[in-house]
Specification:
about 550 residues; alpha+beta; 8-stranded antiparallel sheet; 5-stranded antiparallel sheet; 21 helices; 18 strands; elongated; Glycosyl transferase family 1; transferase
């Protein structure tokens, strides 16, 4: 970074100085993307004094630093250690820390909120279950001491000094510099602090996230066609499970992105993934062609796995014209009809290794996945037997009010079904599936990529409804316009929200152990920043479909 860029940063940050603070604190984070960044703080009575120290230190650094981030403390609240623990305990979700922590007294210590979460300094109680109860966050003494050793190069034998120290929680204004480009960072109240993304630069950032995110997912495919299943990035630990549904659904998302990007290499790698999946994740059991999965080492067969294998193969076929998977798709579909669908058109979700029913119902996703995938197979093969199965399912879902589930796969499925057969009741079903949950979707503060998927499918459906001859039998003109406006409004809000809360931009990735592995991937903050292939799948599918819809490609 040149002196001109640094001087510009001086001016940018100076405007955010809070004169009510007795000490001006600047924090410099810097590093290369092969390892966790270094963080150093600078204290001064004035902004100029702090800046002089920071600039002198910056000039001493080697020239191969990949990126820098500078934070200026703009707000502080002083409290005791006991009050700090109370504030931490009030945090509703794991890793949603909205403040940094500064310690004054016998020892000086400072932790940006990114340091706190990326080094697991604050951890949930043993009783915490993700999505079920509050995390009851507390200090991890081990992780605290380990990070002190790394950051300050001193052994911390006890945390007792915190009891007698002055504690400050703080917020910052920050700027991130990469390749001589400066990004202003915007902080929210749930822990996110990434580049400012607004109407003027949203599409540019969306295209960047799709391209880099798709290549992140591509990088998870090894040369055999099997995925690296995921990471917990705080300590670069791999998730060693595997899941057939997520293997094929991630390939589907990769093919969607490859089609959007016109990336032939990505398509070829996805083909290797399909071939590996059909070779290693399928088998014939009692004459039935099945996709197998494992539950604690025991084989089980899931409706969703059958569906996702069909869907990934269908997407590959659609974008390449290569029909080598027609037989697989047809056989998987007939297996669904024969053993996963009853004469009463009820689905069976899971069989055991002996093809005995293990669970009639496991998760609503499987139903929409089955219908959506078979519709895609029908579109390619024009096999009326397949469409007859689809119609049985669609009628069953409408009759039994499946719109109550507000599921994104059902949204995909009904939009797809309407390509082939339009009926008033199908449109009503699709509208209810989306509209009944719009307020919740709009207000949800966490990243939740399937919500964007649901809305993009609903938006495509409502554009079909707009030119449907019997539209007024489905919805009045006034209500239609309100519904259309509302769906598009909330969809655009979710697209922005997912980007700023779920994308691992470099300005955040730099605090984790191996930034180069995770940059522009996608994470679940509440679950130890989990980065599984299916997280990438849902974000990518939502972003790609949103981008194409807004571009008039759908």
């Amino acid at each position: 970074m040149g002196k001109v860029a640094f001087n510009q940063l001086f001016s940018n940050l100076e405007t955010y100085v809070n004169p009510a603070l007795k000490t001006t604190v600047l924090v410099l984070s810097y590093g290369q993307n092969k390892a966790r960044c270094q963080v150093k703080e600078f204290y001064g009575r004035t902004f100029e004094k702090s800046w002089e120290q920071l600039f002198a230190f910056y000039r001493s650094l080697p020239s191969n630093i990949a990126y820098y981030r500078i934070d200026l403390i703009t707000e502080e609240q002083t409290l005791s250690f006991e009050e700090l623990l109370e504030s931490i305990d009030e945090v509703k979700r794991n890793n949603y820390i909205p403040f940094g922590i500064r310690v004054e007294g016998f020892k000086k210590r400072l932790f940006l909120k990114e340091e706190l979460v990326a080094n697991a300094i604050l951890i949930p109680s043993k009783e915490h279950i993700v999505g079920k109860n509050r995390p009851q966050l507390q200090f991890s003494e081990k992780n605290f001491k380990n990070y002190i050793k790394r950051k300050y190069n001193v052994e911390e034998y006890t945390m007792n000094y915190l009891l007698k120290s002055t504690i400050h929680t703080f917020k910052t204004q920050a700027f991130f510099i990469e390749n001589d480009t400066t990004y202003e960072l915007l902080s929210d109240d749930i822990g996110n602090q990434v580049r400012v993304i607004e109407e003027t630069n949203f599409q540019e950032n969306l295209d960047l996230v799709i391209e880099r995110g798709a290549n992140y997912l591509l990088d998870q495919l090894d040369e055999t066609g099997k995925f690296i299943y995921g990471y917990f990035p705080c300590y670069d630990s791999q998730i060693n499970n595997y899941n057939s549904i997520r293997h094929f659904s991630s390939l589907y998302a990769l093919f969607e992105a490859a089609e959007f990007l016109a990336d032939k290499k990505m398509i070829q790698s996805g083909l290797e993934g399909l071939l590996w999946g059909f070779e290693h994740l399928s088998e014939v059991n009692q004459g039935e062609f099945l996709i197998k999965d494992f539950d604690k080492g025991v084989i089980e067969y899931k409706l969703g796995a059958q569906a996702m294998a069909i869907l990934a193969a269908a997407k590959y076929t659609q974008i390449t014209g290569d029909t080598q998977f027609f037989e697989n798709m047809k056989t998987l579909t007939h297996t669904i009809e024969k053993i996963f669908l009853t004469k009463e058109n009820e689905t069976i979700h899971v069989f055991d290794e002996n093809l005995k029913i293990k669970e009639q119902f496991r998760i609503i996703y499987y139903d929409g996945e089955a219908l959506f995938s078979m519709l895609r197979a029908y579109e390619l093969m024009k096999d009326e037997e397949i469409f007859a199965i689809c119609k049985r399912l669609m009628s069953h879902f409408v009759k039994h009010n499946y719109e109550k589930y507000n599921d994104h796969w059902l949204s995909y499925a009904v939009n797809e079904f309407l390509k082939h057969e339009e009926q008033d009741e199908y449109y009503k079903f699709g509208l209810k599936n989306a509209l009944n949950r719009l307020n919740f979707i709009e207000k949800r503060d966490t990243a939740y990529p399937t919500m964007l998927e649901l809305l993009t499918a609903a938006a495509k459906m409502i554009l079909k409804l707009e030119v449907y001859d019997n539209r007024q039998k489905v919805i009045s003109d006034a209500d239609f316009q309100d519904a259309k406006n509302r769906i598009f409004e909330v969809m655009e809000h979710r697209a922005h929200h997912e980007m700023v809360t779920g994308v691992m931009f470099p300005e955040f990735a730099m605090y984790f152990k191996a930034p180069y592995k995770i940059e522009y991937g996608f994470f679940a903050r509440h679950d130890r920043f989990r980065m599984r292939i299916d997280d990438a799948e849902h974000f990518l599918s939502g972003f790609v479909n949103f981008r194409m819809l807004m571009n008039g490609s759908e």
